[in-house]
Amino acid sequence: MKKFEILILAAILITAFLIRLYKINRPIADWHSWRQADTAAVARNFIKEGFNPFIPRYDDMSSQTNGLDNPQRYRFVEFPVYNAMIAAVWSQTGINETYARLVTVFITLGSILLLYFLVKHFSDAVTAALSAFFFAAIPYNIFYSSTILPGPLMVFGILGLYLSFAKWLENDKQWLLLAVAILFANLAILSWPIAIFFLIPIVYLAFEKYGLAMFRKLNLWIFVALTLLPFVVWRIWMTQFPEGIPNWQFLLNESNIRFKGAFFRWLIAERMDKLILTVGGFVLFILGILKKPIKKEKLFYFSWLLAVAVYFTVFASGNIRHDYYQVPFIPIAVIFMSIGTKTLFNLPSQSFNRFFGPLAAIVLIILIFAFGAFEIRGYYWINKPQIISAGRAVDRLLPTDATVIAPYNGDAAFLYQTNRHGYPIVDRPLETFIDQGTKYLVSVDVNDTGIQNLARHCKVIEKTQDYVIVEMFKECIGR
């Protein structure tokens, strides 16, 4: 690398780190707090109860995820690689959400590096630098790369897979590079299984290199076997704990939304054009798609885009319900944005005014940050700070082994703040809770008539204008 390249990349990395320090110490009560709380709870229980990645547990004992009671608090979704990384950090720093968010930040810095070298391998240093810059600075990605979610680790794994596999194809006798590719592939798939869709570019690269002869390559079959085997074993192991496996079928095509008008409106107009890339980035993205690929790129970027399209199609309702599901779209989006930006800076003078091309690019980039920051600012807000103070009160006043009911519309963020196991939703009669050993209820809905009646007849541990903590007995229920 040239010295100037190193300086540019260093500047991007430093900037990426600094801007992600914005509200880095926010509690788990921001946007998508429910998913962050579940993820953090697994890591916290690794610290509190002992590290066993094969039986991850979170705090939720309710039946809301699949209709089955879950008294052992099993949490079987992705293999807890990301949770284990947080637990490793917490074992040194103590349990603190700021350090968990910093784990994601540093993973993202690694992704910026991998993205730079990957794009430089297929395109050039300018496109690579622009891609790294957009990846570092898009407001949507700034927020999600400081959350406690496994998506950024999956992206890191995918980028590492593409780079190591492409390098291995240049000399397929280098078994070490193939082993690195297998390692990255497992990291991605185990971190978030939707990574399987993003093996499509790997198939393309193998076909582009070998043609149909790829089916006769033993090393490729070894790659496939060692890439998929750990995931298959994990899924088989999970079936022993059905109460810990959340329903996921609704993420496919709930309400038959796939290919309906609402599907395209939400995914393209609301997410890509408004929230993620904003109108400025979306224009650059489309320009990048229209640009003819250079020789080495061939159809690699388009195979990557195809993988995104297949993923969006299969998990149609998941991508409509949750905007964090679009995190894997960011790397390929910024690559095409970078190509589009370069196109505007290099318009042919015989057909375009070359002065207005760069000007248009600069204006569009400014719009990305202006509109993107506006769209994402509310994601950092703590809309219900009462759950923080109520959770601290529970942690201060109740026995450490007490289970609690912390109703918050099923969102476990409130339960997480209590540092206790229990229920984020009232999914059974209060008498049943008591019979099962849960007699404490904490609520931030102090004006609710039911809560007021409960506080009037049961034992109040503590009550403020923001919350009430009640110890329940059968004699005081329903009076």
From TrEMBL:
Entry's Gene Ontology cellular component terms: plasma membrane
GO biological process: lipopolysaccharide biosynthetic process
Domain Glycosyltransferase RgtA/B/C/D-like: 80-237
Protein topology in the membrane: Multi-pass membrane protein
Record bears the keyword Protein biosynthesis: no
InterPro entries, alphabetized: LipidA_mod_glycosyltrf_83, RgtA/B/C-like
Pfam families hit by this protein: PMT_2 (PF13231)
Transmembrane segments: 6-22, 99-119, 125-144, 151-169, 175-206, 218-237, 274-290, 299-318, 324-347, 359-382
Principal place of residence: membrane
Localization per Swiss-Prot or TrEMBL: Cell membrane
Keyword list, A-Z: Cell membrane, Glycosyltransferase, Membrane, Transferase, Transmembrane, Transmembrane helix
Molecular-function annotations in GO: pentosyltransferase activity
Entry annotated with the keyword Thylakoid: no
Protein name listed in UniProt: Glycosyltransferase RgtA/B/C/D-like domain-containing protein
